[in-house]
């Protein structure tokens, strides 16, 4: 599991199958996982794979889309989301 704090920057992350990422839309991250690429920047999250305890907090006024929510993943939405896939 990788946990990225609010305001922190983590780049070129490789999330292997079964790996978990925990963060909010205040972090800046990018990388790839078995389903494709993902990024979070300036309150916008796209393409994250959330599983095995990984979670994303979408803060008020922020946006997330194309999120894959798999087994034991979490998504807390206080902003806006679209195209969320729950597996």
TrEMBL record:
Gene3D superfamilies: 2.160.20.20. It comes from the Bacteria. InterPro entries: AIDA, Autotransporter_pectin_lyase_C. This is AIDA repeat-containing protein. It comes from Escherichia marmotae.
């Amino acid at each position: 599991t990788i946990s990225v704090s609010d305001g922190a920057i983590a780049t070129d992350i490789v999330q292997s199958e079964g790996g978990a990422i925990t963060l909010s839309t205040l972090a800046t991250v990018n990388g790839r996982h078995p389903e494709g690429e993902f990024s979070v920047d300036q309150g916008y999250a796209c393409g994250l794979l959330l599983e095995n305890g990984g979670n994303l907090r979408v803060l008020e006024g922020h946006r997330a889309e194309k999120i894959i929510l798999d087994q034991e993943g979490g998504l807390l939405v206080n902003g806006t989301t679209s195209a969320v896939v729950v597996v």
